[in-house]
């Protein structure tokens, strides 16, 4: 298996790192991976992760919900309930921050968000790596979902909005992705990113067992500070940060399960509630954050 070893920080280029955690792959293999932090810019990343040509087996688990759409178990049922709520919130957010109706959704999964926007009259283009998820979207919604290779074929400045809902952390070549996003987004367009937050209340509580580290599928771990640095590096400005407090409930339940705790769902719900309170006091402690970005003038 080809391993991607990081010698220079992809954000600042420095070579001095320190290990933060050793995390386990709880979904597919049980293997362990190491999280390192750059001493200069504090960007956190998964070290020695499998390259894209070998990483597919880490997504081939029936309970990897964004690809399988499974409803087995209480936690996954709760995920679907929250998703229905969040679809309305996401679509309203997109419409609020756009001056046009051309949308690109990268990493669309099983297509629920793309379908919701299509029903609202948007011209929707969607990309998904997983063939299984693309088949689901075609079968259930009649959506044509592009493979990632087609990203290079889109017209410069074409899209009014580009969304990546919990996707950027999966992309191996971050610089290439940032450059391409800048190219195909309209000058007045909006880039919307949703990302797990490793400086959140629940991440600080669960440490290496925090489910949103999700190694090795999550390669990069963005705090609000490091995401802002990435954005600036590629000509974007973070205009707004919106907390996603419901994510803490789902992530905490999974994290309790990772710790093999009894009554993990109940414990996770309580921890999610505490995280919700913490987030109301300080939005930067949210388990996940939505970032609204615009091109720098």
Specify the oligomeric state.
single chain
The coarse overall form would be globular
Strand proportion, as a percent range, falls in 15-25%
How many whole angstroms does the radius of gyration measure? 18 Å
Largest sheet features: 6 strands, mixed
**Terminus-to-terminus distance:** 43 Å
Instruction: Report low-confidence residues grouped into runs of 5 or more.
Output: 64-68
* Total DSSP helices: 9
Rounded mean pLDDT is: 92
- Give helix and strand order, one letter per element, not per position: EEEEEHHEHEHEHEHEHEHHE
Structure notes:
The chain has 297 residues and is of the alpha/beta class. The chain is built from nine helices and twelve strands. The strands form three sheets. A six-stranded mixed sheet has the order 7-6-8-9-12-11, with helices on both faces. Strands 2-3-4-10 form a four-stranded antiparallel sheet, with no helix packed on it. Strands 1-5 form a two-stranded antiparallel sheet. Helix 2 (74-96) crosses helix 3. The longest helix has 23 residues, at 74-96. The chain starts with a strand and ends with a strand. 42% of the residues are buried.
Break the fold down into its secondary structure elements and pairings:
Layout: E1 3-4, E2 17-24, E3 32-38, E4 44-47, E5 49-50, H1 65-68, H2 74-96, E6 102-106, H3 112-119, E7 123-127, H4 131-141, E8 159-165, H5 174-184, E9 185-196, H6 201-206, E10 220-221, H7 224-233, E11 236-243, H8 247-258, H9 264-281, E12 288-295
Parallel strand pairs: 6-7, 6-8, 8-9
Antiparallel strand pairs: 1-5, 2-3, 3-4, 4-10, 9-12, 11-12
Helix pairs in contact: 2-3, 8-9
């Amino acid at each position: 298996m080809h391993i991607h070893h990081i010698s220079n920080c992809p954000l600042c280029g420095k070579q001095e790192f320190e290990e933060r955690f050793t995390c386990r792959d709880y979904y597919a293999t049980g293997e362990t991976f190491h999280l390192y932090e750059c001493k200069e810019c504090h960007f956190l990343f998964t070290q020695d992760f499998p390259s894209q040509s070998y990483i597919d087996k880490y997504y081939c688990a029936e309970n990897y919900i964004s690809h399988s759409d499974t409803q087995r178990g209480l936690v996954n049922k709760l995920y679907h309930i929250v998703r229905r709520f969040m679809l309305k919130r996401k679509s309203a957010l997109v419409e609020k921050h756009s001056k046009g109706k051309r949308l690109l959704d990268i990493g669309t999964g099983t297509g629920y968000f793309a379908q919701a926007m299509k029903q609202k009259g948007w011209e929707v283009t969607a990309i998904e790596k997983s063939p299984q998820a693309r088949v689901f979207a075609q079968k259930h919604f009649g959506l044509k979902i592009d493979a990632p290779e087609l990203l290079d074929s889109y017209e410069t400045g074409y899209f009014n909005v580009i969304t990546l809902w919990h996707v950027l952390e999966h992309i191996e070549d971050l610089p290439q992705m940032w450059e391409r996003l800048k190219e195909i987004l309209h000058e007045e367009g909006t880039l919307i990113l949703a990302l797990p937050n490793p400086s959140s209340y629940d991440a600080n509580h669960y440490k290496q067992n925090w489910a949103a580290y999700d190694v090795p599928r999550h390669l990069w771990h963005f705090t609000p500070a490091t995401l802002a640095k990435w954005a600036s590096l590629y000509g974007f400005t973070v205009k707004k940060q919106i907390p996603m407090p419901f994510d803490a409930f789902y992530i905490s339940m999974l994290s309790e399960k990772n710790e093999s705790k009894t009554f993990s769902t109940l414990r996770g719900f309580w921890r999610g509630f505490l995280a919700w309170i913490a987030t109301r006091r300080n939005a930067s402690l949210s388990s996940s954050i939505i970032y609204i970005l615009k091109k720098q003038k």
